[in-house]
Amino acid sequence: MSARFDSSDPKRPDEAERFRFEPSAGYSNSELASVASMVFAGFAMVTRFTIWGWLALFAGVSSVISQKSYTNSTRKDQSMMSGWSSVMFSFTALFSVYAPILLGQAKKAGGIPLGFGKGLIAIPQVPVA
Question: What's the burial of 101, exposed, middle or buried (CB within 10 Å: 0-12/13-18/19+)?
């Protein structure tokens, strides 16, 4: 069955082009570093292994450094996963790992601790009478 087109129709089917989906820019390196920082900070809080907190801080600072400046752009909104929130979360993770050590309630575990809460060893407390 052949297609018939009205000559008064403003559309020109002979000039129609197939729609092509333009790939988006995707996530920026800043956002990926911020997500990595959040994940590392979560690992630090769960495992109490100090290296995760330091990796989180490194990724958070990398996220802040690599953020695009929106001052000259029309786009003013930034994502909730900004670099500053990941830096604050990584400081919180480091504090949660080092606070028991500094307060004398725990010490670092030797070797590579694998598992939940295996990064610190509790020091038995002597009750004060």
Answer: middle
